[in-house]
Please model this.
Amino acid sequence: MTNHTVDWQELIVEATDRLRQVVPDTAAREAQWIAEEASGLALAQGGADRSLSATVGAVGRLDAMMERRLAGEPLQYVLGHWPFRRLDLLVDARVLIPRPETEALVDDVLAAVDETRKRLGGVRPVMMVDLGTGCGAIGLSVVEERRGTHVILTDVSDGALSVARANLAGLGRHGTTVEVVAGSWYDALAEGLRGQVDVIASNPPYVGLNDVIADDV
Model:
């Protein structure tokens, strides 16, 4: 792409053509999302913002993001965030990308939390543990959708915990019932929690260390 004065409609058309090399079925949608991230504008098809001229800085950001995507980096990492239920989560190469199937898993976890709340009758908050939390998608969704639940996020990866903490910060005061703890699976939990945990959730990596998978996952 060039840095002469162009509007966003032209840039999106060009980006769409380039993306068809790697994602023919979703090229137009991805071009719009990448352009929106680069510009900070709402660039829906037919929207007025598409007629605005792009700044040199925004074009530079667009070019950099396009090169990453064309090289096969997942779109979610290129954008730097991804929607998950009610949340907009920071995601990068330190964590796996939350999947739609994981959103369905949260429904099951919420059902367990609701059942436990009824059983406890308000004696104490429900305590839920998200083992191997990654970006925090499951545990933070529980806090967002069932306020007051005490949630413990665990992971053995310092990088993943950094991402989870950043996403926790996005919850604001609702995140005060969340703990982030380093450790491998149950080893991360304090001995004093024995018998106190009501709900345990986990969505570990579902590919082996030696499995061959596509770059764009």
Remarks:
- The CA atoms of residues 130 and 201 lie 5 Å apart.
- The radius of gyration is 21 Å.
- The helical segments are 8-19, 27-39, 56-70, 75-79, 100-120, 137-145, 158-169.
- Strands lie at 81-84, 87-90, 127-131, 150-155, 178-182, 199-202.
